[in-house]
Amino acid sequence: MSVASAIVLFAVIWFMVFLVVLPIRLKTQADVGEITRGTPPGAPHDAQIGRRIRITTVITMALWAVIAGIIVSGAISVRDFDWRGIMGAAPETFGE
């Protein structure tokens, strides 16, 4: 895995985890009873974005380490998902 691939993998995982973490324990303005004029009642009262970013980053680092380890080790490859045999036989490599 190249450095660029590792960064892209981290970014994709980070944004997916962020979108999952974002609504957890969210209190809306309607829940609290303090609706700011000009905003919808479903808007967050206190989004705590910094805290959510830190939580997302910690979870992403753990997931990224596991997924990158699987990819680098070769335990699972693209050919494992070729159930219809479209890719054909694996090329022979020297030294194995």
Q: Can you describe this structure in just a few lines?
A:
With 96 residues, this protein is mostly helical.
List keywords for this structure.
3 helices; mainly alpha
Low-confidence blocks of residues:
none
**Gap between N and C termini, in Å?**
20 Å
Biggest β-sheet, characterized?
A: none
Give helix % range: 40-55%
As for the number of domains, it is 1
Q: What is the global morphology?
A: elongated
Mean pLDDT: 90
Percent of residues in beta strands: under 5%
Number of helices: 3
Give the quaternary arrangement of the chains: single chain
Number of strands: 0
- Counting helices, strands and paired strands, the structural category is mainly alpha
Our Rg estimate from Cα atoms comes to 21 Å
Could you state the order of secondary-structure elements as H and E? Answer: HHH
What topology emerges from the helices and strands here?
Elements: H1 3-21, H2 29-32, H3 49-73
Helix pairs in contact: 1-3
Can you walk through the features of this model?
By secondary structure, the protein is mainly α. The protein has one domain (3-79). It contains 3 helices and no strands. The chain has helices at residues 3-21, 29-32, 49-73. The longest helix has 25 residues, at 49-73. The protein is elongated, with a radius of gyration of 21 Å. The two termini are 20 Å apart.
